[in-house]
Amino acid sequence: MESVSITPDAIKAEMQQLSEKNTNKKVTAEIANDWTNFDKYLIDLSQDVKEPQQLVSVSDKPIFTRGNISCVSGKAKSRKTFLIGLFASQFLEHATTEKVIIFDTEQGTFHAQKSAKRIHRLLEWSENENNEKLRVFKLRELKTEERKEFVVNAIRHYKPDIVIIDGIRDLAKTINNEEEATEVTGLLMNLSSVNNCHICCVLHENKADNSLRGHLGTELQNKSETVISVEADGSVSAVSPKYCRDIPFETFHFRINENGLPEHCEPEMKPKNEGKLKELFNDILPATASLNYADLTNKVMAKCSIQKRGAEKKIKSAIEQDIIAKNKAGLYYSGDLNINTNTENSLPF
Predict the structure, then answer these.
(1) Who contacts 287 (Cβ-Cβ below 8 Å, separation ≥6)?
(2) CA separation for the pair 23, 221 (Å, rounded)
(3) Is 3.40.50.300 the CATH number for 8-28+54-265?
(4) Distance from C-alpha of 212 to C-alpha of 186, rounded to nearest angstrom
(5) Is 260 exposed, middle or buried, given 0-12, 13-18 or 19+ CB atoms closer than 10 A?
(6) Contacts by residues 244-252 (CB-CB < 8 Å, ≥ 24 positions apart)
(7) Phi/psi of residue 199, nearest 5 degrees
(8) pLDDT at site 279
């Protein structure tokens, strides 16, 4: 699709007109004025209701569908903004007329533009030309109610397929106010349903644990179809399903490459974890024991309460770090036995 010119002045003028039209109107006015129309909200079993369209998925597991909301959570500097850029680019890569809007409530102009250009680079679009498929708005300077009004007006006007609010906390005056948390979450559900789009919110996790911050986090968690957790571990971030309405996806990892772009990768086994890994295999493979690969995998799965894929990654890391080794018969044994001998004849099997 050919790029179009979207100037800040044109956007400002357009949003001003929309704001004037909506002055003194409640965001739920259409429901308040139509509360006696029971048939409008009645579930009719005679109708053929289609399953919500998948917009973004991970290994064929839906995470963003039309008419729903979701949440991406993580502690500070866990690379949440990089992840939502990855999701946006994945969707737009196959889009024809579909559109994405990102509302950034935290970053200044330079960093917000940098995030937008990052998505353009992932899609191999020009970094210096606007594209009507992606619009990024910076709402840092606005007051809470102004941000909320801007978001409502922009969604109604541009009719995007995916909306990302990077900093949903800034649409509420107090994150721990139950009434306000219910109001903001209800607004998001209304907007996603009426406009047949998906709205993804980004929210910080508490420092003490991995729970979403405040009453707003609790309410979003209860109403979201997918809650995704992002955790940084050195140069790699792990993305895992915290809560899913459908079948959860398997944890995946990404890193920032030399070009400053997020890319999928395998998890790193850092040196600090070597002690724990060694302790694990010392318990499973004492000096007098040996196991074939299948039995070793099953024991790791049982010991760590993980799936087969995770057990295989631990075995691979243990081999690379010489914690365990394999003999010619295909049996695995403790790598410590190689310290004092180099001959298989002295092994305990």
Answers:
(1) 334, 336, 337, 348
(2) 31
(3) yes
(4) 17
(5) exposed
(6) 244/61, 244/63, 245/68, 246/61, 246/62, 247/61, 248/61, 249/57, 249/58, 249/59, 249/61, 249/63, 250/58, 250/59, 250/307, 250/309, 252/58, 252/59
(7) -120, 120
(8) 86
Give the tens place of pLDDT for each residue, 268-324: 755 555 678 888 888 898 877 899 999 999 999 998 989 998 899 899 888 888 889
User: CB count, 10 Å around CB of 262?
Assistant: 21
Q: Which residues pair with 241 in a beta bridge?
A: 228
User: Tokens representing 205?
Assistant: 């996790």
Q: What's the start-to-end Cα distance of the chain, in Å?
A: 67
Show the tokens assigned to 199. 């709205």
Residue range 48-105, pLDDT digits in tens: 989 999 999 998 999 999 999 999 999 999 999 999 999 999 999 999 999 999 999 9
Polymer length of the chain: 349
pLDDT of 158 > 50? The answer is yes
Q: Is 272-346 CATH 1.10.1040?
A: no
d(CA 54, CA 222): 20
DSSP-H helix ranges across the chain: 8-21, 29-32, 80-92, 109-122, 144-158, 178-194, 214-223, 274-284, 293-304, 308-320
- Indicate the residue type of 236: V
Q: Do residues 239 and 264 lie in contact, with contact meaning Cβ atoms separated by under 8 Å?
A: no
How crowded is the C-beta side of 17, counted as CA atoms within 13 Å? 7
Domain ranges in the chain? 8-28+54-265, 272-346
Instruction: Assess whether the region 8-28+54-265 and the region 272-346 belong to the same CATH fold.
Output: no
User: Which pLDDT does position 207 carry in this prediction?
Assistant: 82
Give me the residues paired with residue 166 across strands.
104, 202
Q: Residue 205: its pLDDT value, please?
A: 93
Considering Cα of 222, then 236, then 86, then 84, what sign does the dihedral take? Answer: positive
One-letter identity of residue 71 = C
pLDDT at 148: 97
Determine the Cα–Cα distance for residues 236 and 268; give it in Å rounded to an integer: 7
At residue 145, the pLDDT reads: 96
